[in-house]
Write a structure and sequence with these properties.
Blueprint lengths: L1 H35 L7 H8 L4 H7 L2 H26 L3 H13 L4 H13 L4 H26 L7 H20 L25
Helix pairs in contact: 1-2, 1-4, 4-5, 4-6, 4-7, 6-7, 6-8, 7-8
Length: 205
Amino acid sequence: MEKKRTEARATSTPALDRGRATRRRLIEVTARLCKERPGAEVSVAEIAKAAEVFPNQVTYYFGSKDSLLVHAAFLGLLHDTRRIERIGRQAPDAATFRRNIARAVLAMPSLPPVARALATGISKPELGPVVDRHLQLLFRQSERFVSQLIDGRGWRARRPLDVEVRTFWSTALGAVLLVRAGAHGTNGDLDLAGALTIHDESEPG
């Protein structure tokens, strides 16, 4: 009996690994297609062909195309935030950090797809938990990055770091949602740097 259970586990493990690999490939391919064709509609057939899977595997692994698009949007954001962190580490002082981070975030190609993912989470409540998991991951990673940076530089924030990162990302994503809703304006109309309170000892206040 024990031998059969061991054999069953050995058989199921490769299948699980293949499933995870397929799921990951679908997310990565979708993220790439959305980046290559910003604003364009990407079909399930196109995604499946690029990922070398059957179209029904999209619904098998994600339940719907919209769910896959949410995962792909946040994967793109994760890739972009790694570049943003590198930019942040290069800043010689807190004022430059605030300015450079704000400018780089507003230029991220992943920001509009994530804004669409937020809108999808609103219109389709069943995807709300998926959006929330990704947002919580974004907040945690951002908080960890900022904590390590200011500890290493001797900088300070004028509010708790969890509030700092949530305020910053809410401002950035809210700006994109406003544009999607038809509001007129440009990035120059938004003081995203002002959403950050990180400062060094040379700054007053």
